[in-house]
Amino acid sequence: MIVQTLAFYLFAVVAVASGIMVVGARNPVHSVLFLILAFFNSAGLFILLGAELLAMILIIVYVGAVAVLFLFVVMMLDVNFVALREGFARYLPVGALVGAVLLLELLLVLGAWVVAPGALERAGVPIAPAGEVTNAAALGAVLYTKYIYLFQAAGLVLLVAMIGAIVLTLRERTGVRRQSAARQLARRSEDTLDIRDVTTGSGV
Fold first, then answer.
1. Distance of alpha carbon 13 from its chain centroid, rounded?
2. What pLDDT was estimated at residue 111?
3. pTM of the model
């Protein structure tokens, strides 16, 4: 128990510090690296809770795909971050309002036993005891039975976002050579090859 407690405090402190550095770092590349560190520590917390499947999903999906993609995009794009910070004072009231609303929601969640005393008991009803089923089986049973419609709706939202990103980026540009697979497959060898009989010792 002492080792698990020490590991919990270590992962929690590093995750919180990494989250603060994601927002506070001036270099965007450093922010993405701190984000990856926060994901790793969050995966460690999931392992301590016995949710090893969620830990592996967090590392494979978020660290292996999303965070690395963010890092490559930030490194490849020449973004003028000084110009982006110029309108900070103008949008500060709106940001403060959104932050206040989020803080109020967090306080309501933390005080759930005051607002709704039986909320925590009702939330744990669909979850089977840890000793009876595995973590993956319990998660799949809840996800594909009670929340199947929400799961499908999330998939449709991601599909629409993917199609939108393709439509926005796939546009015709003048002066850019594009590959046409149909034209390449339709070509004949007579159209591309020029066979000449060259005598020995002479050039073309």
1. 22
2. 65
3. 0.53
